[in-house]
Here is the input.
Amino acid sequence: MAGAAAQGATAYVTLEPCAHHGATPPCCEALAKAGIARVVAPIADSDPRVDGQGFGYLRQHGVEVTTGVGAEQALSDHAGFFLRIAQGRPWVTLKLAMTVDGRIATATGESQWITGPEARRAVHALRASHDAVMVGAGTARADDPQLTVRGFGDRRQPVRVVVSRLIDVPLMSQLAQSARDVPLWLCHGPEARSELKTAWEGVGARLLPCQISGGRIDPLAMLRALGSEGLTRVFCEGGGQLAASLLLHDLVDELQVFTAGMALGAEGYPGIGALGVARLDEAPRFDLVDVVGAGADIRHVWRRRQSA
Here is the structure.
């Protein structure tokens, strides 16, 4: 797009320019052909099709290459990309909006709204920073959510992912009604009825068959299926059973916890389902990254412990 202005210019990129043919030709070739004189990049691309080859091509064609600038920030920004390359699955952020006693709904199921408008706006911003927003079938039935980014103007919407072994989500839901406008993927098990699969495909949803383990969808296999579709960051908004399944299998990379100053008591719905923890050293552990206010609520950010 720069045309002649690219001659002798410096290009600042957030990752090593690619060196392989995919949906587009190699970026390193395009940069050299454009007459770029210098490329500044923080880190190499760990994809084996690149991994130093992009830098090598640029140097061979007379382009000066500077690396290491902003490397720590780039590693954080690209964490999902690198995780998908290394483990075949996307980065998982688990969001919990709870009372001070860890409840997400009253005993009757009322949950809107536990947190205030500032916290809800922060959640929409988090949705926008991920490739997909994911919920379990129980949350899809109880809340009838849209799972879209709202309040930030006209923008790309993340994929909506519903994890439902039997695809037991109402076909009259907001998700179904908007499936042709905003991508909707259903992760299901082999027992899902063929007529339900046909009906959901008919409204525009995409079906992703997943393996079953212990009577539930295997969370690692499900995430790898999402990774194979190119997703690098998934924002999970519950409910409790899906959250517990991800935590039990050590698949939560980051926690975004919004805590409201109210209590609902033991009869309320817990934010996380049963984990079967008998001893403290069996519990999933995270390191605190940040604590900030979100209106009348508190937002905690936690990351997976490196030792884990």
Q: What stands out?
A: The two ends are 45 Å apart (CA to CA). The chain has a mean pLDDT of 93.
